[in-house]
């Protein structure tokens, strides 16, 4: 099985969205450089960010998101973002009316079921868990191996927390990656067991 990694861009004060559920400048780093990060050419980052991020993105076999993110993005119109092969949506509700059953989106009732399903799809590749409430729940359940953050130089003051509503202490190892890009600091921590 591949690693389970909790990931997102995050403000310096620990938020993945502002109080209006908007990411604001959290993704500005994705257009702050000259090196294309994807085939579209719309995302351009520094060479350092490209080397770090592209290697990570290429290793993702499945992504887990909550129903809130799925609804906010309108299910990415049935096409997983960033070339991801499968998206597992944690939800207690059924797929939306008229949802294409052939789309590579899978619905799971609970985080344990979502992680198990994502691991089946990912095999030895990475299972990415979106930060926020679902990511915090997966961390609290002891199912996260690694925490990755793209820390952006902005302070929101309030909003959606990176770790969601986690209210217990979780120890991480010292960072094993601290990489400065344009308008972003990439951090990677292993979760201590």
From TrEMBL:
Residues 4-170 form the Bacterial bifunctional deaminase-reductase C-terminal domain. GO terms for biological process: riboflavin biosynthetic process. Pfam families: RibD_C (PF01872). Transmembrane segments: none annotated. One of its GO terms (molecular function) is 5-amino-6-(5-phosphoribosylamino)uracil reductase activity. InterPro entries: DHFR-like_dom_sf (IPR024072), RibDG_C (IPR002734). SUPFAM superfamilies: Dihydrofolate reductase-like (SSF53597). This is Dihydrofolate reductase. The lineage of its organism: Bacteria, Bacillati, Actinomycetota, Actinomycetes, Pseudonocardiales.
